[in-house]
Amino acid sequence: MWIGRGLWYDMGFYQRFQDEYGAVFVWSMYLAIAADGYIRYGDDPMRALAARFAAFTDQLYTPPWSSEWYVKEARLHGIDGVVHLVSDDPRGSYFTARALESAGFPVIEIEADNVDARTYDGDRVAARIGHWLEDAVLR
């Protein structure tokens, strides 16, 4: 499971773990929001459209609602482990990780900016995740 914004400057990041470990990211918030966050009803199309975006922050970042949603999604999709991208504006990331761990899902947190690669060391991050996969997920 991938939680957080995409690493837009390292798109090979995701394929790397499938190639090396057979591990795939079967869930990301971008896909799940389409199912749970976009659906809004009503006679006024502008209000329905606005309602889609009004709930995003709550759905993704405000505990306990967001934390419970991530746990529900992890269970629904048969997740074995969670890679959680934590950026400078983590909002509810602490509670998300703790809720997933409490539900029995191994979590590794990566601190990075999803669009600024200046402080990102892809080899170091890949090595950390590789060790985590070997020790906590694939054993």
Describe the secondary-structure layout:
Blueprint: E1 2-3, H1 12-21, H2 29-36, H3 45-54, H4 56-61, H5 65-76, E2 82-86, H6 93-102, E3 107-111, H7 122-137
Parallel strand pairs: 1-2, 2-3
Features:
single chain; about 140 residues; mainly alpha; 3-stranded parallel sheet; 7 helices; globular
Structural features, described:
The structure is a single chain. The chain is mainly alpha-helical and 139 residues long. It contains seven helices and three strands. The chain has helices at 12-21, 29-36, 45-54, 56-61, 65-76, 93-102, 122-137; strands at residues 2-3, 82-86, 107-111. Helix 1 crosses helix 7 and helix 5 (65-76) crosses helix 6. The longest helix is centred in the last third of the chain and has 16 residues, at 122-137. The chain is globular, with a radius of gyration of 16 Å.
Largest beta-sheet details: 3 strands, parallel
| Element-level helix/strand string | EHHHHHEHEH
Q: What is the CA-CA span between the terminal residues?
A: 17 Å
Summarize model confidence as the mean pLDDT: 85
Strand order of the largest sheet: 1-2-3
How many individual β-strands? 3
Helix share, percent: 40-55%
Principal-axis shape equals globular
- Regions with little confidence, pLDDT below 50 for 5+ residues: none
The rounded Rg comes to 16 Å
DSSP summary: helix tally: 7
